[in-house]
């Protein structure tokens, strides 16, 4: 259907057009509601074959806006390219009415991508409500979504954006999916998705609809475990868990196991501050996908750290098993999956979902009242900013003109609609507000007779109908109430004979409104059509200018050249999250490290190409240079300068035996120099690059050392290239490496420079202590975050006990204290309390100068040009 035709039918035959959209939705994706907030027309998203509708019919308020043209191509989904924003009103609500009705389990996903749509470059913060209850606080600069599993108690589901005074709320898309089964139902409350992982998936970065019929988004996750996969068909027959949960076979066909049967799998995390009081529920999915020698069976026990939850599972070949944990809480949560003595095979994990439990403390207004007041709103075409969502709850967002009683359930007890341009008859819906005590309809253009049904309101004590064009007489039942003095009624200025004396009779004049309304809406239709054309042509221009700026001069490598440079991939020098790293030599003799990447989606690949080209022009003495890349559609490779001494983590983990290895221990002054080098690199990314580059995954394995032990940061900007639409879109919130992840990140998603500063603080602590960010106990059964271990000791003032024992006491105590203080400031829980990296750099340099009496340091100073180099 042509866009102009759609607009035409919407305006003239609104109900018919709406009916058409509903039919399209039903045929395309039964059980789905998919709203592209801010979109001007309906369409089918090619990426996932989901039909998106506009906001029409779901919300009355708000403005359609397009995201900034500078970033519009960062995300491929059409639905992210525009938003609906709500500059007016405290609370703006979408109303969803799924065909399957109430008391059903629904997945509801609200998607946000700020993308500087308002040109203010300031991410707003606002609250999200599900019906009358708080759901989440939103403040994302990146693409992010909030998702819950919700069982509504009414036919209408309201998703509300609440302005809390920290910026204008907006939304990119809103999705609802219907579950056929009560797989995610709690006795009370709702499940809020934190993570959903397809373990061991490496061929793509996420899976969703149409593979997952419920459109859950499964992110590829590869832990530091062994990966296994199969091409065999998983048994999805009726009656087993995969059937019930409708977990696609494709998700279950990949998995990870531990190295051997005596090593358990651990899943552990430290909930961020905002989640620390929540209970978590974990859904585990297991399938045996390896053919074990006959007679052998994989059997393991899943348990939580304090053993309040344990469950033993025995697997049969290709038969899925789902295990749902009981709710668990705490500041550090560990699940272990451990082989039983009988098994002889390592434990396996195919997929896992992490949820927190949300409470529903507020009770909505009585449904009869809600129905009646919505009827009144619709009949009289009442447009008031606050008339959205539940009429009474939460009490600070009550509709204006209403007062409620807050029993269980809350009820509407007074309604004031004086001077509100009401026309037509007094509607019977009013008499369904059965707890009404006070009703003021004065000074409107209401006509006709007073309906008898108003006398059905047993609690009505006050009725003001003054200043209306009413006729007839007062119904007997009302007259009786007035006579009995249980009702005060005012009819001044109406044509109705008075009940009592004195009764002043004054007739008012009234304006004529109706014809004006009709012609205004006709004009708007024409205007809208014209705007749409202008907008389309503008979009095209932007697309072309973007292409121009990205077409850079660098020549990419061919796969054949990469193969030759690496001597047919002869020497592996490392293995990272993205793939293997090979040693290579370019034709001009430059030694390089070649990182091969696993195949990715076509779109991700385009993004990668653009990002890689940009990173090739970023040069600084403390950043590992990207020298080239290969963008053959099947093979992707990044070619880096070679760093002879590997990564920092290796050097912090050296053993003290034999004696030769002792010599390899990094001295304190070398560590300080490495800290300064890394801070310099990060400072350049944050403050020297425009726009700033956020590393997002800074850690000791990403800090590489050259032959002189000078440090350079690697892999910067990459998470963005890969994230693009993928990670970006697969993780409910952006993630990094456990242990380095900013605790505020999970709660706010506000991925910014300060998250890198947090990770840098952890790196400093590793330099100080020699310990990894996540520390395992000797038997591997528990683990602890470095801060948990270190903070109490530092607070006691016992610095000797935190210093790396490998230093054997050889360090300058003053500079050590100083670095501990710097690291503490970098890892403060709230991002806002952390310093900028340039401040950190200044402090670190001071510490370095204070100990630079040692010959080692002088040597370094001579070697190093600390000013940023632009090549
Ligand atoms: C809601 O659905 C559940 C399970 O489908 C059922 O047990 C329960 O009785 C229903 N509750 C109401 C109020 O209909
Ligand atoms: C299965 O494993 C093979 C070899 O490791 C790998 O190439 C392939 O991509 C994996 N399949 C999936 C779906 O991850
Ligand atoms: C399992 O692996 C650990 C660590 O690699 C090793 O110490 C242990 O001996 C292995 N156990 C078996 C039974 O192979
Ligand atoms: C396995 O056997 C060892 C020694 O007999 C025992 O200590 C341990 O608790 C057993 N583990 C399980 C999971 O049964
Ligand atoms: C409304 O009440 C809630 C809960 O009592 C509170 O958190 C919120 O700040 C209030 N909002 C306003 C605008 O007063
Ligand atoms: C609601 O209550 C407030 C405070 O008691 C009062 O000022 C206001 O007039 C009432 N509104 C209605 C519609 O009754
Ligand atoms: C009533 O209509 C008049 C004239 O159209 C308008 O100026 C006024 O704002 C309206 N009042 C309300 C409460 O809608
Ligand atoms: C009824 O409404 C009119 C107009 O708003 C007002 O002047 C009058 O005082 C009201 N009557 C009572 C009894 O409050
Ligand atoms: C009616 O108004 C009078 C005078 O304001 C008051 O005394 C009386 O209580 C009212 N009656 C009712 C039923 O509210
Ligand atoms: C008042 O009502 C009468 C009879 O229904 C109608 O003829 C008249 O036009 C109305 N006046 C206004 C100003 O609405």
Q: Can you give a write-up of this model?
A:
With 871 residues, the protein is an alpha+beta fold. The protein folds into six domains: 17-178, Jelly Rolls (Sandwich); 195-358, Jelly Rolls, CATH 2.60.120; 367-490, Ribonuclease Inhibitor (Leucine-rich repeat, LRR (right-handed beta-alpha superhelix), Alpha-Beta Horseshoe); 509-552; 555-641, Phosphorylase Kinase, domain 1 (2-Layer Sandwich), CATH 3.30.200; 648-861, Transferase(Phosphotransferase) domain 1 (Transferase(Phosphotransferase), domain 1, Orthogonal Bundle), CATH 1.10.510.10. The protein is 26% helix and 23% strand. It has 20 helices and 43 strands. Strands 1, 7, 10, 13, 14, 15, 16, 20, 23 and 26 form a ten-stranded mixed beta sheet that branches. A five-stranded mixed beta sheet has the order 27-28-30-32-34, with no helix packed on it. Strands 35-36-37-39-38 form a five-stranded antiparallel beta sheet, sandwiched between helices. Helix 1 crosses helix 2, helix 1 (3-12) runs antiparallel to helix 7 and helix 16 runs antiparallel to helix 18 (813-826). The chain is elongated, with a radius of gyration of 32 Å. It binds 2-acetamido-2-deoxy-beta-D-glucopyranose (10 copies). The site of one 2-acetamido-2-deoxy-beta-D-glucopyranose has 3 residues, from loops.
Q: How many separate domains make up the residues?
A: 6
Count of alpha and pi helical runs: 20
What value does the average pLDDT take? 81
Bound molecules: 2-acetamido-2-deoxy-beta-D-glucopyranose
**Per DSSP, what share of the residues sits in E-state strands of 2 or more residues?**
15-25%
Q: Name the structural class.
A: alpha+beta
Q: What is the name of the CATH superfamily of the largest domain?
A: Transferase(Phosphotransferase) domain 1
Largest sheet entry? 10 strands, mixed
Poorly predicted regions: 1-24, 500-554, 600-604, 721-735, 745-750, 853-871
Helix content bin: 25-40%
Q: Gyration radius, to the nearest Å?
A: 32 Å
Number of β-strand runs: 43
Can you tell me the CATH class of the largest domain?
Mainly Alpha
Q: Could you say which overall geometry the principal axes of the C-alpha atoms support?
A: elongated
CATH topology description of the largest domain: Transferase(Phosphotransferase), domain 1
- What's the CATH architecture name of the largest domain? Orthogonal Bundle
**What's the end-to-end separation, in Å?**
54 Å
């Amino acid at each position: 259907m042509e866009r102009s035709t759609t607009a035409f039918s919407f305006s003239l035959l609104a109900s018919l057009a709406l009916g058409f959209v509903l039919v399209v939705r039903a045929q395309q994706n039964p059980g789905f509601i998919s709203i592209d907030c801010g979109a001007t027309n309906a369409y089918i998203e090619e990426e996932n074959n989901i039909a998106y509708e506009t906001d029409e019919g779901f919300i009355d308020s708000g403005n359609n806006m397009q995201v900034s043209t500078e970033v519009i191509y960062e995300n491929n989904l059409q639905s992210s390219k525009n938003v609906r924003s709500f500059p007016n009103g405290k609370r703006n609500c979408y109303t969803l009415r799924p065909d399957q009705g109430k008391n059903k389990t629904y997945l509801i996903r609200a998607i946000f991508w700020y993308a500087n749509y308002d040109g203010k470059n300031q991410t707003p913060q606002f609250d999200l409500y599900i019906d009358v209850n708080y759901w989440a606080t939103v403040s994302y600069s990146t693409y992010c979504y909030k998702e819950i599993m919700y069982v509504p108690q009414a036919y209408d589901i309201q998703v509300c954006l609440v302005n809390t005074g920290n910026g204008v709320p907006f939304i990119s898309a809103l999705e609802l999916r219907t579950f056929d089964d009560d797989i995610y139902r709690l006795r009370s409350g709702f499940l809020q998705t934190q993570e959903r992982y397809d373990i061991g998936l490496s061929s793509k970065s996420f899976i969703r609809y149409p593979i997952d019929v419920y459109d859950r988004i499964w992110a590829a996750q590869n832990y530091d475990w062994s990966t296994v996969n199969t091409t065999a068909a998983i048994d999805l027959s009726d009656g087993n868990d995969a059937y019930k949960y409708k977990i696609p076979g494709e998700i279950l066909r990949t998995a990870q196991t531990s190295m051997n049967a005596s090593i358990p799998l651990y899943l552990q995390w430290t909930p961020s501050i905002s989640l620390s009081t929540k209970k978590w529920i974990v859904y585990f999915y297991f399938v045996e996908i390896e053919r074990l020698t006959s007679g052998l069976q994989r059997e393991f026990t899943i348990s939580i750290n304090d053993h309040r939850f344990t469950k033993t599972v025995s697997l049969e070949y290709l038969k899925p098993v789902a295990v749902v944990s009981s709710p668990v809480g705490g500041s550090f949560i560990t699940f272990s999956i451990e082989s039983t003595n009988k098994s002889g095979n390592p434990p396996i994990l195919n997929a896992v979902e992490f949820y927190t439990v949300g409470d529903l403390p507020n009770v909505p207004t009585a449904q009869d009242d809600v129905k009646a007041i919505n009827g009144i709103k619709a009949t009289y075409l009442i447009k008031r900013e606050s008339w959205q969502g539940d009429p009474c709850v939460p009490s600070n967002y009550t509709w204006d003109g209403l007062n409620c009683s807050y029993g269980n359930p809350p009820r509407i007890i007074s309604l004031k609609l004086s001077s509100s341009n009401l026309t037509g008859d007094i509607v019977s819906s009013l008499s369904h507000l059965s707890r009404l005590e006070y009703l003021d309809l004065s000074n409107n253009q209401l006509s006709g007779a007073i309906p008898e049904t108003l006398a059905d309101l047993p609690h009505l004590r006050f009725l003001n109908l003054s200043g209306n064009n009413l006729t007839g007489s007062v119904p007997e039942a009302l007259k009786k109430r007035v006579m009995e003095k249980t009702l005060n009624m005012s009819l001044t200025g109406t044509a109705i004979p008075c009940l009592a004396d004195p009764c002043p009779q004054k007739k008012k004049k009234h304006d004529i409104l109706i014809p004006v309304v009709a012609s205004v809406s006709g004009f708007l239709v024409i205007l809208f059509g014209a705007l749409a054309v202008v907008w389309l042509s503008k979009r095209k221009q932007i697309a072309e200018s973007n292409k121009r700026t990205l077409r850079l001069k660098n020549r990419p490598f061919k796969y054949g050249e990469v193969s030759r440079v690496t001597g047919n991939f002869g020497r592996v020098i490392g293995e990272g999250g993205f793939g293997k790293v090979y040693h290579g030599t370019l034709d001009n003799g430059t030694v390089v490290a070649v990182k091969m990447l696993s195949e990715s989606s076509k779109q991700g690949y385009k993004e990668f190409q653009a990002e890689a080209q940009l990173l090739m022009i970023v040069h600084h003495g403390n950043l590992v240079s990207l020298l080239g890349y290969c963008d053959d559609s099947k093979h992707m490779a990044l070619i880096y300068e070679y760093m002879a001494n590997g990564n920092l983590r290796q050097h912090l983990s050296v053993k003290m035996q034999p004696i030769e290895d002792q010599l390899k221990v990094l001295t304190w002054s070398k560590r300080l120099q490495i800290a300064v080098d890394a801070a310099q690199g990060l400072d350049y990314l944050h403050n020297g690059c425009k726009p700033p580059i956020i590393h997002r995954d800074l850690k000791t394995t990403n800090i590489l050392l050259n032959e002189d032990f000078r440090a350079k940061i690697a892999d910067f900007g990459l998470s963005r290239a890969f994230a693009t639409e993928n990670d970006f879109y697969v993780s409910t919130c952006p993630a990094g490496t456990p242990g380095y992840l900013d605790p505020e990140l999970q709660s706010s998603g506000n991925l910014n420079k300060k998250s890198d500063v947090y990770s840098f603080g952890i790196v400093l602590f590793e330099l100080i202590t020699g310990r990894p960010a996540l520390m395992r106990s000797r038997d591997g059964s528990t683990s602890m975050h470095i801060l948990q271990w270190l903070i109490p000791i530092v607070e006691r003032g016992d610095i000797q006990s935190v210093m790396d024992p490998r230093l054997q006491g050889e360090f300058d105590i003053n500079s050590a204290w100083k670095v501990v203080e710097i690291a503490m400031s970098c890892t403060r829980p709230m991002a806002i309390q952390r310093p900028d990296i340039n401040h950190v750099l200044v402090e670190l340099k001071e510490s370095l100068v204070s100990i630079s009496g040692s010959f080692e340091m002088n040597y370094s100073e001579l070697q190093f040009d600390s000013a940023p180099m632009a090549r």
